[in-house]
Amino acid sequence: MNVKLNTSMGEIVIELNEEKAPRTAANFIQYVEAGHYDGTIFHRIIDGFMIQGGGMTEDMKEKPVGPPIENEADNGLSNDAYAVAMARTQDPHSATAQFFINVKKNDFLNHTAKTPQGWGYTVFGKVVKGHGVVNKLKGVPTGRKGMHDDVPTTPVIINKAEVVAPDAA
Length: 169
Description:
Elements: E1 2-7, E2 10-16, H1 22-33, E3 40-46, E4 50-53, E5 83-86, E6 99-102, E7 123-129, H2 131-137, E8 142-145, E9 148-152, E10 157-164
């Protein structure tokens, strides 16, 4: 299954890996189908690392989320360039709606052990269309907004997220 993100900078299509990250992919689809991502922003962008979004509105208010999901980072998928993974707190099993797109290979985010330091970040998909959009996004000017660093100075908005058939992407 694929998800298309229609952003203020262009379209990004993510191919979900429902086989290796079934709970995470299902969680993501649930947020997409509920319209959760519509109107959210990419609120944290670090060139040479990742672009993160899916949880905040343009005024940096967090949207309400459901319960956290179990970490599936031990699924063999890697945080390679253009891989999509779930954001979380220091608690390995705290991911809800926020996700990030790796803009380079980030091996240090991969699962190494079932310990607080080794759990890693669950990869559940990859960008299959819109690499140029991701490359534009990673280079936008950022600054501090409230308590948050690395916030784009001009908001990058996810106008709409929708599930699309793989051949329609």
